[in-house]
Amino acid sequence: MPGGTATPLWRLSASELPALIRRRERTSREVVEAHLARIAEVDPVCRAIGAVLADPALAAADAADAAQRRGDAIGPLHGVPMTVKENIDVAGSATTQGVVVMKDAVPQLDAPHVAQLRAAGAIVIARTIHCTPCGSPFATAGDGSEALNTAGRTPSSPARGLVQILATTTLRAAPPSR
Q1: Global confidence as pTM
Q2: Would you call 128 exposed, middle or buried from its count of C-beta atoms within 10 A (0-12, 13-18, 19+)?
Protein backbone atom coordinates (compact mmCIF):
# COMPACT_ATOMS: atom_id res chain seq x y z
CA MET A 1 0.00 0.00 0.00
CA PRO A 2 1.14 3.59 -0.49
CA GLY A 3 3.57 4.61 2.23
CA GLY A 4 3.48 1.09 3.67
CA THR A 5 0.24 1.81 5.51
CA ALA A 6 -2.73 -0.48 5.75
CA THR A 7 -5.08 1.96 4.02
CA PRO A 8 -8.27 0.13 3.00
CA LEU A 9 -8.56 -0.25 -0.76
CA TRP A 10 -11.88 1.62 -0.82
CA ARG A 11 -10.09 4.71 0.56
CA LEU A 12 -7.58 4.90 -2.30
CA SER A 13 -7.98 7.22 -5.28
CA ALA A 14 -8.60 6.43 -8.93
CA SER A 15 -4.91 7.03 -9.59
CA GLU A 16 -3.62 4.97 -6.66
CA LEU A 17 -5.72 1.88 -7.38
CA PRO A 18 -4.54 1.18 -10.94
CA ALA A 19 -0.95 1.86 -9.85
CA LEU A 20 -1.26 -0.91 -7.24
CA ILE A 21 -2.77 -3.21 -9.84
CA ARG A 22 -0.06 -2.40 -12.45
CA ARG A 23 2.61 -3.22 -9.86
CA ARG A 24 0.71 -6.45 -9.14
CA GLU A 25 0.42 -5.56 -5.47
CA ARG A 26 -3.36 -6.02 -5.76
CA THR A 27 -5.70 -7.49 -8.35
CA SER A 28 -8.71 -5.86 -9.92
CA ARG A 29 -10.83 -8.54 -8.23
CA GLU A 30 -9.45 -7.64 -4.80
CA VAL A 31 -10.18 -3.97 -5.41
CA VAL A 32 -13.74 -4.63 -6.61
CA GLU A 33 -14.39 -7.04 -3.71
CA ALA A 34 -13.20 -4.40 -1.22
CA HIS A 35 -15.55 -1.79 -2.68
CA LEU A 36 -18.47 -4.22 -2.75
CA ALA A 37 -17.80 -5.06 0.90
CA ARG A 38 -17.74 -1.35 1.76
CA ILE A 39 -21.08 -0.84 0.02
CA ALA A 40 -22.52 -3.76 2.01
CA GLU A 41 -21.18 -2.19 5.20
CA VAL A 42 -22.36 1.40 4.77
CA ASP A 43 -25.30 1.33 2.39
CA PRO A 44 -27.81 0.07 4.98
CA VAL A 45 -27.28 3.48 6.63
CA CYS A 46 -26.70 5.62 3.53
CA ARG A 47 -29.28 3.94 1.30
CA ALA A 48 -27.53 5.46 -1.71
CA ILE A 49 -27.30 2.32 -3.84
CA GLY A 50 -30.25 1.21 -5.95
CA ALA A 51 -28.59 -1.90 -7.39
CA VAL A 52 -25.33 -3.68 -6.69
CA LEU A 53 -23.88 -5.25 -9.83
CA ALA A 54 -21.62 -7.73 -8.06
CA ASP A 55 -21.63 -10.57 -10.60
CA PRO A 56 -20.89 -8.46 -13.71
CA ALA A 57 -18.41 -6.37 -11.73
CA LEU A 58 -16.49 -9.42 -10.55
CA ALA A 59 -16.56 -10.87 -14.07
CA ALA A 60 -15.16 -7.57 -15.42
CA ALA A 61 -12.49 -7.58 -12.70
CA ASP A 62 -11.49 -11.13 -13.60
CA ALA A 63 -11.31 -10.14 -17.29
CA ALA A 64 -9.16 -7.13 -16.36
CA ASP A 65 -6.81 -9.35 -14.37
CA ALA A 66 -6.60 -11.84 -17.25
CA ALA A 67 -5.81 -9.02 -19.69
CA GLN A 68 -2.99 -7.84 -17.44
CA ARG A 69 -1.59 -11.38 -17.12
CA ARG A 70 -1.58 -11.66 -20.95
CA GLY A 71 0.32 -8.40 -21.19
CA ASP A 72 -2.51 -6.57 -22.98
CA ALA A 73 -2.50 -2.78 -22.94
CA ILE A 74 -4.42 -1.51 -19.91
CA GLY A 75 -6.14 1.83 -19.46
CA PRO A 76 -5.48 4.59 -16.94
CA LEU A 77 -8.46 3.49 -14.82
CA HIS A 78 -7.64 -0.23 -15.00
CA GLY A 79 -9.56 -1.99 -12.22
CA VAL A 80 -11.06 1.18 -10.71
CA PRO A 81 -14.58 0.54 -9.37
CA MET A 82 -17.23 3.14 -10.13
CA THR A 83 -20.92 3.67 -9.58
CA VAL A 84 -23.37 5.13 -12.09
CA LYS A 85 -26.56 6.95 -11.19
CA GLU A 86 -29.64 5.06 -12.30
CA ASN A 87 -30.72 7.79 -14.71
CA ILE A 88 -27.69 7.07 -16.93
CA ASP A 89 -27.60 4.07 -19.25
CA VAL A 90 -25.46 1.09 -18.27
CA ALA A 91 -25.77 -1.89 -20.60
CA GLY A 92 -27.64 -4.73 -18.93
CA SER A 93 -28.83 -2.71 -15.92
CA ALA A 94 -32.20 -0.97 -15.66
CA THR A 95 -32.14 2.79 -16.16
CA THR A 96 -35.07 3.35 -13.79
CA GLN A 97 -34.67 7.06 -13.11
CA GLY A 98 -36.29 6.15 -9.78
CA VAL A 99 -39.60 5.42 -11.50
CA VAL A 100 -41.45 2.13 -11.05
CA VAL A 101 -42.63 1.95 -14.66
CA MET A 102 -38.99 2.13 -15.81
CA LYS A 103 -37.85 -0.90 -13.81
CA ASP A 104 -37.67 -3.01 -16.97
CA ALA A 105 -35.93 -0.37 -19.12
CA VAL A 106 -32.66 -2.20 -19.65
CA PRO A 107 -30.44 -0.61 -22.31
CA GLN A 108 -28.30 -2.68 -24.65
CA LEU A 109 -25.55 -0.04 -24.73
CA ASP A 110 -23.77 2.14 -22.19
CA ALA A 111 -24.18 5.91 -22.27
CA PRO A 112 -21.19 7.36 -24.17
CA HIS A 113 -19.36 8.57 -21.06
CA VAL A 114 -19.88 5.22 -19.29
CA ALA A 115 -18.47 3.46 -22.36
CA GLN A 116 -15.46 5.80 -22.31
CA LEU A 117 -14.81 5.14 -18.62
CA ARG A 118 -15.06 1.39 -19.19
CA ALA A 119 -12.69 1.66 -22.16
CA ALA A 120 -10.24 3.36 -19.79
CA GLY A 121 -10.52 0.32 -17.51
CA ALA A 122 -13.15 1.38 -14.95
CA ILE A 123 -15.55 -1.27 -13.63
CA VAL A 124 -19.19 -0.47 -12.87
CA ILE A 125 -20.03 -2.01 -9.49
CA ALA A 126 -23.37 -0.41 -8.58
CA ARG A 127 -26.14 2.01 -9.53
CA THR A 128 -26.72 4.96 -7.22
CA ILE A 129 -30.30 5.99 -6.70
CA HIS A 130 -32.21 8.71 -8.43
CA CYS A 131 -34.98 9.81 -6.07
CA THR A 132 -38.34 10.72 -7.50
CA PRO A 133 -40.08 13.42 -5.45
CA CYS A 134 -43.14 12.03 -3.67
CA GLY A 135 -45.42 14.60 -5.31
CA SER A 136 -44.20 13.80 -8.81
CA PRO A 137 -46.69 12.34 -11.29
CA PHE A 138 -43.98 9.76 -12.02
CA ALA A 139 -43.72 8.69 -8.37
CA THR A 140 -46.25 5.89 -8.82
CA ALA A 141 -46.76 3.09 -11.28
CA GLY A 142 -50.32 4.25 -11.88
CA ASP A 143 -51.59 1.72 -9.39
CA GLY A 144 -50.85 3.73 -6.26
CA SER A 145 -47.53 2.03 -5.58
CA GLU A 146 -44.59 4.21 -4.62
CA ALA A 147 -41.63 5.26 -6.69
CA LEU A 148 -38.58 3.07 -6.46
CA ASN A 149 -36.50 5.46 -4.34
CA THR A 150 -38.54 8.08 -2.52
CA ALA A 151 -36.77 7.46 0.79
CA GLY A 152 -33.23 7.19 -0.50
CA ARG A 153 -30.44 9.58 0.15
CA THR A 154 -29.10 11.96 -2.48
CA PRO A 155 -26.79 14.98 -2.28
CA SER A 156 -29.82 17.19 -1.56
CA SER A 157 -31.04 15.04 1.33
CA PRO A 158 -30.23 15.31 5.05
CA ALA A 159 -27.66 12.51 4.72
CA ARG A 160 -25.69 14.43 2.12
CA GLY A 161 -22.45 14.03 4.02
CA LEU A 162 -22.73 10.24 4.18
CA VAL A 163 -23.37 9.97 0.46
CA GLN A 164 -20.49 12.30 -0.36
CA ILE A 165 -18.13 10.27 1.83
CA LEU A 166 -19.16 7.06 0.09
CA ALA A 167 -18.86 8.65 -3.35
CA THR A 168 -15.55 10.42 -2.85
CA THR A 169 -13.83 7.47 -1.25
CA THR A 170 -15.14 5.15 -3.96
CA LEU A 171 -13.93 7.12 -6.96
CA ARG A 172 -11.89 10.28 -6.82
CA ALA A 173 -10.90 11.73 -10.18
CA ALA A 174 -7.57 10.59 -11.49
CA PRO A 175 -5.18 13.35 -12.49
CA PRO A 176 -4.74 13.70 -16.25
CA SER A 177 -1.87 11.64 -17.59
CA ARG A 178 0.75 13.28 -19.75
Answers
A1: 0.77
A2: buried
